[in-house]
TrEMBL record:
<protein>
    <submittedName>
        <fullName>Putative HTH-type transcriptional regulator</fullName>
    </submittedName>
</protein>
<dbReference type="GO" id="GO:0003700">
    <property type="term" value="F:DNA-binding transcription factor activity"/>
</dbReference>
<dbReference type="InterPro" id="IPR011711">
    <property type="entry name" value="GntR_C"/>
</dbReference>
<dbReference type="GO" id="GO:0003677">
    <property type="term" value="F:DNA binding"/>
</dbReference>
<keyword id="KW-0238">DNA-binding</keyword>
<keyword id="KW-0804">Transcription</keyword>
<dbReference type="InterPro" id="IPR000524">
    <property type="entry name" value="Tscrpt_reg_HTH_GntR"/>
</dbReference>
<feature type="domain" description="HTH gntR-type">
    <location>
        <begin position="17"/>
        <end position="85"/>
    </location>
</feature>
<dbReference type="Pfam" id="PF00392">
    <property type="entry name" value="GntR"/>
</dbReference>
<keyword id="KW-0805">Transcription regulation</keyword>
<dbReference type="InterPro" id="IPR008920">
    <property type="entry name" value="TF_FadR/GntR_C"/>
</dbReference>
<dbReference type="InterPro" id="IPR036390">
    <property type="entry name" value="WH_DNA-bd_sf"/>
</dbReference>
<dbReference type="Pfam" id="PF07729">
    <property type="entry name" value="FCD"/>
</dbReference>
<dbReference type="InterPro" id="IPR036388">
    <property type="entry name" value="WH-like_DNA-bd_sf"/>
</dbReference>
Length: 228
């Protein structure tokens, strides 16, 4: 039986923003913080009541999130997209082209403050992988790390492409963090990333990002289904 997700009431952002954008950001925040999971349902009526707005901006925000591939239409409302293996592999193929190059830019040009912040995020992610955190919470932390890596990239065109690819990958990340294998692969990546960032070594940064995605691809192709 599908559940309806409960969203705590809280002040909306700056009133000058368009209502649709504010609702869009709030729903996306739910996903990124692991508060929305497959099987839970978002409805226009529920969200409109929680945020004290009409159903129109809510409908537009949900439609936009569905167009971006983060939500999927259900019989009555929307839910988090349950991505098939083929969708995960397609997204990994794109990230395999972008992420290694982006990481080289970051290692070579990021400021000391940016390097320290990225290392801290990587440390936090590695610690969380060894905890009882849910796949959705783990995915949220990794999503933030990868987006911050893109922000630190000195090539603005590449950075925009990487942010878009990472946003599109958000629904796939929890699937790769359900079992021990995916967590172990990710832990190795984070350890190598911290070493490369601190050493300012573009070669190890590039190979580490490339190997991480290659290992995920190999693991997915060896498995018919994601681990439960």
């Amino acid at each position: 039986m599908r559940q309806t997700v409960t969203i705590a009431s809280r002040p909306l952002p700056d009133a000058r923003q368009r209502l649709r954008d504010r609702i869009y950001d709030a729903i996306r925040d739910l996903v990124e913080r692991g508060k929305l999971q497959p099987g839970q349902r978002l409805t226009e009526t529920h969200l409109a009541a929680r945020f004290g707005v009409s159903r129109t901006p809510v409908r537009e925000a949900l439609f936009q999130l569905a167009r971006e591939g983060l939500l999927e239409p259900l019989e009555r409302g929307y839910g988090l997209l349950e991505m098939p293996m083929s969708g995960v592999l397609a997204r990994l193929d794109v990230k395999r082209l972008l992420d290694p190059v982006m990481t080289v830019y970051v290692v070579e040009t990021a400021s000391p403050a940016q390097i320290e912040q990225l290392c801290q995020l990587a440390r936090d992610g590695a610690t969380a992988l060894g905890s009882e955190a849910s796949p959705f919470a783990l995915a949220s932390g990794l999503h933030r790390l990868q987006k911050d890596l893109a922000i630190a990239c000195s090539n603005p065109v590449l950075a925009r492409c990487c942010v878009a690819a990472e946003d599109d990958f958000l629904a796939a990340r929890p699937l790769l963090l359900r079992g021990e294998k995916g967590r172990a692969i990710t832990a190795d990546y984070l350890d190598g990333l911290m070493t490369s960032l601190r050493a300012r070594c573009p070669e190890t940064a590039e190979s580490g990002a490339r190997n991480y995605i290659a290992r995920l691809v190999d693991w997915c192709r060896e498995s018919d289904t994601f681990p439960g």
